[in-house]
């Protein structure tokens, strides 16, 4: 059964959350790294002089915590995204590492004993640019993350009984670099032009390439950083308006180097609830 997202109408105009009409502001973001668990990973958010772009960067250390590790930047606020169906991430430049986009609709007061943020459910999706078979950094790419593709997790583990994401009450947006069971480490860098809430998933994909990422297989140690899943869902097929035959032609990453497109659109389209009934 397809997952549902509360309050989605898909009739609003695109809304720039960061970048675009709303300049980036480094002061709005704070680090949340594995140093809280004794790790040595670090992250930063560097904003361009004119506020038109922001670079999420740092170093992921996985040796200190025995193969684990994470580095992230988060921002808090009040966003009513009930009229939107996903987020468009405009990437100015990205490396080959896999990143995680996270939303929260609930926050708790800091723990009175240690002052740390108390755990709540995270709704997340993983993406990487470009495919591991393409050499070098990538430039000027677009990532579309449907809200229906977000996986609910609690303290890093899937939470199958989680409520639907309340898009009318988004409290926190985060970008994360994690080890995925020791499959990646070291320096990372992702320069973003904008994060934009979108009222519908693009259907005109003639100049784009689409891959179907099963983030949870990798998170559970069942895949590799280059792996892709061919699993399709009726829910997201209908959202994207394409037949199964179309997706089957582009879901194989080994085929990606055959195409020379200016824009790469990666649809992160496998939900935890459908992938793990």
TrEMBL record:
InterPro entries: Galactose-bd-like_sf (IPR008979), NADH-UbQ_OxRdtase-assoc_prot30 (IPR013857), NDUFAF1 (IPR039131). Residues 212-237 are annotated as: Disordered. One of its GO terms (molecular function) is unfolded protein binding. It comes from the Eukaryota. It holds the Pfam family CIA30. Residues 25-191 form the NADH:ubiquinone oxidoreductase intermediate-associated protein domain. One of its GO terms (biological process) is NADH dehydrogenase complex assembly. Belongs to the CIA30 family. This is NADH:ubiquinone oxidoreductase intermediate-associated protein 30 domain-containing protein. It comes from Friedmanniomyces endolithicus.
């Amino acid at each position: 059964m397809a997952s549902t997202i509360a309050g989605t109408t898909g009739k609003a105009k695109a809304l720039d959350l960061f970048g675009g009409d709303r300049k980036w502001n480094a002061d709005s973001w704070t680090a949340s790294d594995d140093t809280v668990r004794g790790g040595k990973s670090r992250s930063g958010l560097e904003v361009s002089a004119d506020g038109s772009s922001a670079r999420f960067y740092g170093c992921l250390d996985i040796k200190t915590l025995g193969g684990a590790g994470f580095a992230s930047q988060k921002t808090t606020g009040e966003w009513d995204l009930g009229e939107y169906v996903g987020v468009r991430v405009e990437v100015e430049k990205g490396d080959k590492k896999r990143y995680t986009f996270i939303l929260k609709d609930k926050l708790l007061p800091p723990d009175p004993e240690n002052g740390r943020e108390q755990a709540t459910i995270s709704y997340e999706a993983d993406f990487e640019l470009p495919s591991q078979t393409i050499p070098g950094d990538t430039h000027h790419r677009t990532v579309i993350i449907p809200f229906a593709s977000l996986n609910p997790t609690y303290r890093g583990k899937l939470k199958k009984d989680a409520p639907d994401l309340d898009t009318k009450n988004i409290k926190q947006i985060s970008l994360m670099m994690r080890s995925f069971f020791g499959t990646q480490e070291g320096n990372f860098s992702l320069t973003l032009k904008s994060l934009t809430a979108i009222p519908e998933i693009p259907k005109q994909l003639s100049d784009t390439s689409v891959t179907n990422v099963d983030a949870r297989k990798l998170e559970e140690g069942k895949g590799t950083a280059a792996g892709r899943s061919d699993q399709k869902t009726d829910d997201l097929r209908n959202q994207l308006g394409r037949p199964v035959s179309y997706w089957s032609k582009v879901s194989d990453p080994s085929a990606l180097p055959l195409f020379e497109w200016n824009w790469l659109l990666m649809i992160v389209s496998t939900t935890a609830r459908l992938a793990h009934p």
